[in-house]
Amino acid sequence: MWDKGSEVSPSLSPVKMGGAVSAGEDNDELIDNLKEAHYIHSDLVERAFRAIDRADYYLEEYRDSAYKDLAWRHGNIHLSAPCIYSEVMEALDLHPGLSFLNLGSGTGYLSTMVGLILGPFGVNHGVELYADVIEYAYQKLDYFIKTSESFDKFEFCEPSFVAGNCLEIPPESRQYDRVYCGAGVQRDHKEYMKNLLKVGGILVLPWRRRCLTRIRRTGQSSWETKKIIAVSFAPLALPQHNTNGEPKTVPLPTFEVRTLQELARIAIRHTLRVTTDNGGGQPRGQGSFGGGRGLGVSRLHKFGPRFKRRRVHHRRHCTSVVLAHKHVVSNADPTPAPLDNNNNNHGGQEDGQRRAAREEEEEAEKETGEQLPAEPPINILRERILVLPLPEPLKMYLLYCREK
Question: How far apart are alpha carbons 95 and 103 in whole angstroms?
């Protein structure tokens, strides 16, 4: 289930299947280009794209091609072009706590980005035709959780994948709030796809292989359809039959209620992420812990570039955090200040030092023309967990046994 070369639908403006934006030097620059070309226009989608390096989903020998706006395939492993994924993410209108079904889930790249927005109380399922691709997807998912600094910046809905043909899902299976199909859907299977949706849900699919289309279910038998862009996808693989002539069935991933241990980990990490002591024992943050919390509550962590690159006319929405004593500050603000209500006697002096250091750094960059490495942000969540008065095994559990 993969897309292929470009083909234009007569009802839409010509849009290539990839190659719509310039290649980037790294993941951040690729996202910059997608924003400038108006493929990404919402903050949630931008932050999800910045959180996951597209090159991590490529085989090592092909990483140099990861930041081009092109589809990539090697054997059964496949990634759509970045401009397609960004259109899909925007069209799905994702929110924390929703249920999502990815038909033709592939490497898990899209499902992992979606999981950053759904939060720990969403549902994130995928169906993939090839078992070896599912194995690859789980390897990449494990790598993201265990090694990526981005993981600690979000509350995550981990995807689950099953092997099989997505046209063989039993009709009595559960319905979802959001569904994406990564292969061309012909007329015979359109109703089948639409019936996977709950009322109010959104389905995004390549209709008849030629047009990426968004369908919203407005009632039991009413729908709203919107064409997005012209594309060209390979068609869905047709269902197979057992030896007795009966069609196979592919059960969807099971919906499992979280254990109390998992809920405790989610609650502790959430509390450490969104609160800080104001000096009077009162927590500060975005309200009490509740269901459906996702990428949108990650106030303490946003994304800054890994390197200082050439200046662009617009400034990214990025806030790397630095922990100084008990104050959380953001380097997105040119004059950062503590979040609590207590006055820091050295605050003005520290602000002046920061400004002077930044001006000196910018002046050196102008003179040399070199791209200076940015100071990596401190992982505040990790630092807070490590100082908890808990046994080491519990700390490692809270950290998801991360290697970094």
Answer: 19
